[in-house]
């Protein structure tokens, strides 16, 4: 017998979410039933609610994939070390097969059979969520639940992007977009020892970037980021977490020879124009990076527990979910908004 719970639900890509009472099914044999404490609002949830991407989410959908909660019960066949009472993270990678060449080589984020939380399966904008136990990650005591939430997607994704970029201490890293992801991307680049140039359209975001350790800032509304970053010698790596194709092109053109651009944001408008000749002659790499693994997330929590990262967040109530989406879309939210259940 399932129970009832409050959840924010997408019924139609062109309508606001509705906060309503829904049935919570019993967890499957390999799932944990988790009572949600907090859930971050990722821009991906907005793309999901609007049906922005080539692959559409299920409907009706409960979005949310930065879930923090307490395990209340377990299915019969849970083999991971998760126990009732554990405080766990529910990430975007909701399920992976566990057997394919990606799953067995530490790249389960590329599993072709994966199911994504708050997209293919119901997510964490709710009082409860059923999560496949193999993919949940225990949250260490030193990490508070409001701060844990943004680390579960924004944190792990940008930590992984910096790993994929191969950032070294002498590098200049450009971070395009200082939102939920970007405010953490710049901190991981600093932890890797790099100098950082932060690019955004809003002065408040750039002053936050400065506070968090950015060495340089560029306002892409009033300055040409390519020109400004070239003045600094060009970026060794540019990480694009801005929801605009133009920023991807600027990130690419801001590179020095041998540089790497890492595509992370997923704007609705899916195309960019990049030159072949310069890519070849300049030995430039264009990389895509998708979230991070359980091990990456464990490392992200360790860094935070050790006091090495700062999560900038503001609390919201799930009843105000539509206003919260609007704030993020308009660039008015300060880094991450987190729902407290
Ligand atoms: P956000 O809205 O919090 O942040 C986006 C930031 O980009 C904002 O600060 C905004 O002002 C800035 N921006 C917008 N246009 C810009 C431009 N032209 N130049 C510079 N800055 C600009 O969003 P978020 O939650 O950080 O997510 C960012 C993107 O990353 C989304 O598209 C999301 O779907 C995607 N995402 C990808 C992954 C992945 O694994 N690859 C994981 C999570 C999120
Ligand atoms: Zn697999
Ligand atoms: Zn996300």
Automatic annotation (TrEMBL):
GO terms for molecular function: alcohol dehydrogenase (NAD+) activity; zinc ion binding. Residues 12-339 form the Enoyl reductase (ER) domain. Its EC number is 1.1.1.1. Keywords: Metal-binding, NAD, Oxidoreductase, Zinc. It comes from the Bacteria. It is an enzyme of class 1 (oxidoreductase). InterPro entries: ADH-like_C, ADH-like_N, ADH_Zn_CS, ER, GroES-like_sf, NAD(P)-bd_dom_sf. It catalyses: a secondary alcohol + NAD(+) = a ketone + NADH + H(+); a primary alcohol + NAD(+) = an aldehyde + NADH + H(+). The keyword Transmembrane helix does not apply. Its cofactor is Zn(2+). Belongs to the zinc-containing alcohol dehydrogenase family. This is Alcohol dehydrogenase.
């Amino acid at each position: 017998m399932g129970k009832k719970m409050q959840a924010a639900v997408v019924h139609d890509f062109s309508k606001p979410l509705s906060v309503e009472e829904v049935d919570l099914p019993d967890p499957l044999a390999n799932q944990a039933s988790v009572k949600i404490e907090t859930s971050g609002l990722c821009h991906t949830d907005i793309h999901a609610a609007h049906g922005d991407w080539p692959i559409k989410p299920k409907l009706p959908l409960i979005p949310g994939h930065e879930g923090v909660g307490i395990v209340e019960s377990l299915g019969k066949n849970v083999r991971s070390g998760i126990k009732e009472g554990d405080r766990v993270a529910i990430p975007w990678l909701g399920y992976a097969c566990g057997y394919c060449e990606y799953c067995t080589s530490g790249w389960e984020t590329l599993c072709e059979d994966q199911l994504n939380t708050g997209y293919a399966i119901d997510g964490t904008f709710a009082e409860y969520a059923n999560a496949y136990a193999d993919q949940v990650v225990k949250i260490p005591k030193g990490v508070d639940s409001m701060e844990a939430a943004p680390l579960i997607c924004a944190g792990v994704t940008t930590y992984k992007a910096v790993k994929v970029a191969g950032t070294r201490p002498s590098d200049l890293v450009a971070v395009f977009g200082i939102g939920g992801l970007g405010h953490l991307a710049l901190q991981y680049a600093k932890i890797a020892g790099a100098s950082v140039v932060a690019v955004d359209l809003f002065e408040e975001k750039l002053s936050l970037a400065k506070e968090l350790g950015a060495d340089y800032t560029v306002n892409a509304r009033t300055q040409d980021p390519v020109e400004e970053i070239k003045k600094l010698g060009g970026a060794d790596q540019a990480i694009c977490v801005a929801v605009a194709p133009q920023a991807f092109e600027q990130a690419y053109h801001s590179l020095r020879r041998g540089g790497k651009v890492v595509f992370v944001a997923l704007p609705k408008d899916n195309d960019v124009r990049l030159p072949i000749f310069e890519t070849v002659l300049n030995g430039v790499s264009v990389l895509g990076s998708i979230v991070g693994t359980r091990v990456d997330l464990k490392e992200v929590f360790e860094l935070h527990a050790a006091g090495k990262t700062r999560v900038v967040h503001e609390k919201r109530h799930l009843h105000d979910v539509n206003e919260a989406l609007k704030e993020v879309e308009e660039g008015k939210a300060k880094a991450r908004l987190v729902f407290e259940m």
